[in-house]
Amino acid sequence: MNRKLSAFAKVSIFVAIACIIALWFTPMWRIDLAAPQYPEGISMNIWINDVKGDVEIINGLNHYIGMKTIHKNDFKEFVYMPIALGIFCALGLVVFFLNRRIGFYIWTGLLLLIALVSMYDFWKWEYDYGHNLDPTAPIKVPGMAYQPPLIGYKKMLNFEALSQPDIGGWFFVAAALLLTGASVYEWRRAKKMGL
Amino acid sequence: MKLSHLLLTAAAAALAVQGCKMKSTESAVGGDAASRTYVAPGKYDELYNFVSGGFSGQVAVYGIPSGRLLKVLPVFSVNPENGYGYSEETKPMLNTSQGFIPWDDQHHLALSQTNGEHDGRWLFANANNSPRVARIDLKAFKTMEIIELPNSGGNHSSPFLTENTEYVIAGTRFSVPIGNQESALDNASYKKNFKSTASFINIDKNSGHMNVAFQIILPGMDLDLSRAGKGPSHGWFFFSTYNTEQASTLKEVNASQKDKDFIVAVNWKKAEEYVKAGKAKKMATEYYHNTFNEETHSATSEIIKEVLTLDPTELKDFVYLIPCPKSPHGCDVDPSGEYIVGSGKLAALIPVFAYQKFVKAIEDKAFEGEYNGLPVIKYEAALHGEVQKPGLGPLHTEFDGKGNAYTSFFVSSEIVKWSIKDLKVLDRVPTYYSIGHLMVPGGDTKKPYGKYVVAYNKITKDRFLPTGPELAQSAQLYSIEGDKMQLLLDFPTIGEPHYAQAIPAEKIKDQSVKFFDIAKNKHPYVAAGEKATKVERKGNEVHVYMTAIRSHLTPDNIEGIQVGDDVYFHITNLEQDWDIPHGFAIKHAPTAELLVMPGETATLKFTPKQTGIYPFYCTDFCSALHQEMQGYMRVSAKGSNVPLKWGIGDTAPGAGADTTAK
């Protein structure tokens, strides 16, 4: 029984690893805020291990409504995420040398799992950030929560918020699509050959 | 004739008189003027216009073509609006050898140039009264340096620049005895003892730092304006001068007698060589040089004790006089560097000199004689030609880069456009009223921008709503794109606008500093974070290291201050965002308030005279909670045992000691 990987799948391993490594050099996610009094715009960039951009400005603004301030050190994700993705890349090499389809499927599943867990974690953080307001906050708007959109556009008071993958995020998406596509291709190839 | 006929005739006559009434002041405006100066909300102006503030001592920045006031830059006068000249950091900027001088008379401006074009780095400003020159940085729009001038009676002929910003010059308006000597006041002692000086201030290519490289001692007369040569005439400086009669009194009459005064032509390259060759004389003097440090956000004063002087009656061949009718004001060099336009303010014509002819006249020794030991060139030998019957009282000329010159006429209140080549008058427009200088953006450079001319008017009369006996001065914007000049806009200005400079917005706007990096703040009393705030007593002095951030000051409760203490409030603005300054004011502080830029530290000194509670607060509306941005200082009697305590929230002196009923 031939359980070996096609050349396409083998190449895709390295392309996917390269895409993931790009996350160390490019921001993963971005949240843009716009309001008439900020014509130059405010933007926050989430990296694999850091949060950059106009974080201090956002912190300054949010303290009126009692939102927590954002600090790099408060995110254990910035420790776990590089480790998880580092392990994922190392496993890719293992999958390559094992040269078994099942390994490739599991590895693809692992990336999708990381993506899912990250998005869930991100949503949970946003929920907490937008709902857990300081009871002594100077301004309270009845019934108002300030949870940013997980992905896409949302208007909050006079601010418009847009949340979307940044360059690194698109590399991640590309890696996930590539591996899923390669898995489907492997699956079909195996079926066709009656293996 | 019947009475009814008589009445009818009278009525008809009255109507006829009404029908031929005289031209009104608004008649010159064309139909599309409004749209050509309209800058829609959210759009920017095409040009920055830096306009001298005259007796306000400041410089104003307007947008062109809208005429909107963008900013007033504090330069030579204290400015309570932001604490300039009041804060401990900025006080040294206004130091002079005669002490702290918190005002001046600011006349002319010069934008730094590279290859004869404005480069957008610095703006230089003169102080006419207490002779000084300032350098303003165009990244932060801030006065960075002020240098005093020794041996100067009044710094009017200043600041004008060479084509690569090698030198900014400063010529004396009021001749005085050199070295602040006392002298009798009569024409004989004027002739003997009084001198004027032309100071050459060297500009450091990279930092912009100024130093008085040398001074040329000239005969007693009044230097008025100046222009550097450019292109072929680079290396020369031309000064207009009046009172070559050397009168010491009633100059209105006595300085207006001679048919021709002079344009003083200085070969500064040759002067530079003489200085290098050690031919300049060291002279003991004392003048101040004040510099603002971008990292400590503080100014320091340095006293300089000597100056190099050159005597052109000893070193003969670098200063020449060109006769020029009559009491010339402007002596303006055209963009090609070939023509020098003299504007005799009492003359009925405009003489235009040719640089090539002037140089040849020197070679040919075409001199008509000497004046106080300086060679005088024959008028005709240097003359390109005269513009005949241009108007009355020519003052100053700028150029459009297409071979046209624009001269302002004070007496006949108009701008006259004429051709440099054939000296023919091409067009004239009235100005309302009494124009002084005019400005074509880049009109003093090799490449004028050439779309507009702005008239700076000395008297405004009915241009704006009346405001009592004193009215704002006015600037008037004209289009010079077509053959005919067209009035587009009036806009009021601060002080009295004398001269101005303008530069395309693109050359400056993107380099504008948005805030100071707090990590680079090296102020000795910085509090880079609320944890660094504290209050320290050193004998009679108390230093409060305070921070400001939306929307609180830290500490906001201070106790243990005593009557008579010198309390220094060092406020650090922790914000790192554009346009978020915080103000600081304390009740009854007799100086001013502060306006502290993001990332900056500024210090207000206050010596309380009475016991009590002194509220302090932010004066610049900063946020929804601006009104809450306030605190208290408790001042106790001298020798009181109230300990020094401070804090905010949980750490405030009274916090935790809850005395309310439980």
From TrEMBL, chain A:
The chain crosses the membrane at residues 7-26, 78-97, 104-123, 167-185. Keywords: Membrane, Transmembrane, Transmembrane helix. This is Copper chaperone NosL. It comes from Chitinophaga pollutisoli.
TrEMBL record, chain B:
Residues 1-16 form the signal peptide. PANTHER family: CYTOCHROME C OXIDASE SUBUNIT II, NITROUS-OXIDE REDUCTASE. This is Sec-dependent nitrous-oxide reductase. The gene is nosZ. Its EC number is 1.7.2.4. It comes from Chitinophaga pollutisoli. Keywords: Copper, Metal-binding, Oxidoreductase, Signal. GO terms for molecular function: nitrous-oxide reductase activity. It is an enzyme of class 1 (oxidoreductase). It is found in: Cell envelope.
